[in-house]
Design goal:
Layout: H1 2-29, H2 33-36, E1 44-52, H3 59-91, H4 99-109, E2 115-121, E3 125-133, H5 134-164, H6 168-181, E4 191-194, E5 197-200, H7 201-214, E6 216-221, E7 224-227, E8 238-243, E9 252-253, E10 258-265, E11 268-270, E12 273-275, E13 281-283, E14 286-289, E15 295-302, H8 304-308, H9 315-323, E16 329-335, E17 338-344, H10 351-367, E18 371-373, E19 382-396, E20 399-412, E21 417-430, H11 433-456
Helix pairs in contact: 3-4, 5-6, 6-7, 10-11
């Protein structure tokens, strides 16, 4: 009986143990409470997310984490936008349309101090639960804002000193630096004391930059000139920059001001970024006019991107620069007539083929682009010389082929080569070699004219 009782007890004990183990395993497979019901805790920003499990990889862990942290960042964005709404509408006069995007981007990049509360892996998804203490985030943010405000205020004082000395370029540089330092907090309504007055930093900086640029005066001297196709200007042109900022009605020279110069109409080789000298002037550097258009226009304006340097790539500064109103000046260039004589390299028996197959295409195509063609070599100022080599190809089923290598040279009155265009191995096919060669030269000229148009227009 004792043996039987002991055996029964063992069976009972084993049975309880097995039941308990099955129960524990069952509990482990159930999702935790935070998965089933989103927790609410006013002391924390909470991020809960999941990702499909990738067998043999930990990629799902990083995906779930990133999604959870993005959720925390989104909550932070909502809070900041809500807190700053009055500043956006009433005080932040500029760039408010991108404020929420900027805050969201900053919140994602600047998260720190968050903690992993729990994780759970189901049959198909991996879950994570992160949180960030609101008070900790607030203290961190306030510390960063205080540092950014202090640095920006010091830079504004440096800018004011340069401005008083009449050094607009250095003043603008310091203002850009100040704005860049508060770039992550545009729209927060950051305040500071400048010249014993409480100001909103971003509006103050913007206003001072506009005051400087708005009082600049730029002019070409002369404002109209004459140029040569494939050459430069017949007379030098000067650019002068002056300012009446802080001087009343009198204009003073602006030294060291970077300028952006470019063609509005036409094209050519010019220095796209130049700087004024001590007297506020600089010469326009235009080494070659590439377009034969009879009337061309060059525009010049201050170059804030050059002043800002690497800061011009930062989002806040780039957006500010794109919205600055800048003075400008325009130079009108009347091009000396482009009168052209056609010339050909002597190729013996092929001369007539080359001339007859090319002349019409060249003259009709380029006349519409401003070229004037003449047969009088004494009245033209350019020579367009065509050098073409023709060679026979094969004959297949009575179809003859020929090939052409051709080059067009632009030559001036002094026999100086200005530019050239070339094609090689252009084929033509017809019922005879003569006609095939005609096709080859026609196809070559078509391609040469296209090159010329692509380059010059």
């Amino acid at each position: 009986m004792r043996f039987i009782f002991a055996a029964i007890c063992c069976v009972v004990l084993l049975s309880c143990g097995t039941t308990q183990k099955v129960s524990d395993d069952f509990e482990d497979t159930l999702p935790p409470q935070w998965v089933q019901r989103y927790p609410i805790d006013p002391q924390y920003f909470i991020g809960i997310a999941s990702a499909p499990i990738t067998p043999g990889s930990a990629e799902h862990i990083s995906k779930a984490r990133d999604a959870a942290l993005a959720e925390i960042a989104a909550s932070i964005t909502v809070q900041i936008v809500s807190e700053s709404e009055s500043h956006i509408r009433e005080e932040n006069q500029f760039f408010s349309h991108t404020f929420e995007e900027r805050i969201s981007s900053f919140a994602k990049q600047d998260l720190e101090g968050y903690e992993l509360v729990d994780s759970w892996e189901g049959d198909h998804h991996y879950w994570v639960y992160y949180r960030l203490c609101r008070d900790l985030y607030r203290r961190q943010k306030e510390e960063k804002i205080n540092i950014a405000t202090r640095i920006a205020t010091d830079l504004i004082h440096d800018a004011d000193k340069e401005r008083q000395k009449g050094n607009q370029r250095h003043a603008l540089f310091y203002y850009f630096q100040a704005y860049n330092n508060i770039g992550d907090f545009i729209g927060y309504g950051l305040e500071s004391t400048i010249n014993e007055q409480e100001v909103f930093l971003e509006n103050h900086i913007w206003g001072e930059i506009q005051n400087i640029t708005g009082n600049l005066k730029i002019e070409f001297i002369p404002s109209k000139t004459v140029g040569m196709f494939l050459g430069g200007l017949l007379k030098p042109v000067e650019i002068k920059v002056r300012s009446d900022y802080l001087t009343g009605d009198s204009f003073k020279a602006v030294p060291g001001m970077p300028l952006a110069v470019y063609f509005l109409r036409g094209s050519g080789e010019l220095s796209e970024s130049i700087i004024t000298g001590d007297d506020g002037t600089t010469n326009l550097s235009l080494t070659k006019i590439n377009s034969p258009l009879s009337s061309q226009v060059i525009k010049v304006k201050p170059d804030p991107e050059s002043i800002a340097g690497n800061m011009a790539k930062e989002e806040a500064v780039a957006e500010m620069i794109s919205n600055i109103s800048l003075p400008e000046a325009r130079l009108e260039i009347d091009l000396r007539p482009v009168t052209v004589c056609l010339d050909y390299t002597e190729r013996g028996e092929y001369n007539e083929i080359i001339k007859n197959s090319s002349r019409g295409t060249i003259t009709s195509s380029l006349s519409r682009k401003g070229f004037e063609f003449t047969d009088d070599i004494h009245s033209c100022n350019y020579f367009l010389k065509l050098d073409a080599n023709l060679r026979r190809g094969t004959v297949i089923q009575n179809i003859h082929t020929a090939f052409c290598d051709a080059t067009v040279y632009f030559i001036d009155e002094e026999n100086v080569e200005l530019m050239s265009f070339s094609v090689r191995n252009i084929s033509g096919a017809d019922l005879s070699f003569i006609k095939a060669k005609q096709k080859a030269i026609e196809n070559s000229v078509d391609k040469l004219v296209k090159q010329i148009k692509d380059e010059l227009f």
